Amino acid sequence: QSVLTQPPSASGTPGQRVTISCSGSSSNIGSNTVNWYQQLPGTAPKLLIYGLNQRPSGVPERLSGSKSGTSASLAISGLQSEDEAEYYCAAWDDSLDGYVFGTGTTVTVL
Amino acid sequence: QVQLQQSGPGLLTPSETLSLTCTVSGGSISDHYWNWIRQPAGKGLEWIGRIYSSGATSFNPSLKSRVIMSLDTSKNQFSLKLSSVTAADTAVYYCARGEYCTSGRCYAGLAYWGQGAQVTVSS
């Protein structure tokens, strides 16, 4: 059972902005950095966000992360067909002494 | 460019021990956390555990009693053993490095992943 809660789905038309939320607690999001991953069908997840909402090399600037208290969010601006994928948030949980993933959100480009 | 290559049997019978190995190329196994993650078909990601290059480990509490992780620095490899498997352990298993490093600093995040290995437990 996932410790971090995400909406099951999100959608938008090309060019729109889509935001995915991730709700946690003081022992994970509240006290540690949040990572975001993108997973295309049949492939390994790809790191999108690390640290203080930074992007690894090659991840476009139209993807951005933010955090407030025990919640985090990933925003995708200028939505493109290639953004259709499953997205997961994740963070270290101090109480569990382990890394926890969100429930996952399917993004659909209409 | 860091690359992770997974290997191990894909079909097990209940009660057997799952054994997977991940070989790291393009970088050293030292000074990093090495993780195992799994994903049942159609479901989300589940973190299994991690091992630091010193040998220190952390595990998912739900799997802790059945998991052993080890590493071989001479071969730049790390391994997972999961004992007493059941059908519930059927999943794609991934290995991953636990940090993204840039400009001389490293940050938490599973930056490099293996290709994934389908493990099926069936009698």
Structural class of chain B: mainly beta
Query: What portion of residues of chain A is helical?
Result: under 10%
3D shape of chain B? globular
Number of distinct beta strands of chain A:
9
State the low-pLDDT regions of chain A, or none.
none
State the distance separating the first and last CA atoms of chain A: 30 Å
Stretches with pLDDT under 50, minimum 5 residues of chain B: none
SSE string of chain A, helix = H, strand = E? EEEEEEEEE
Total helices of chain B: the number is 0
The global form of chain A is: globular
Give the termini separation of chain B: 40 Å
Specify the structural class of chain A.
mainly beta
What is the succession of H and E elements of chain B? EEEEEEEEEEE
Q: Into which percent range does the helicity of residues of chain B fall? A: under 10%
What fraction of the residues of chain A are assigned to beta strands by DSSP? over 45%
Biggest pleated sheet of chain B = 7 strands, mixed
Mean pLDDT of chain B: 96
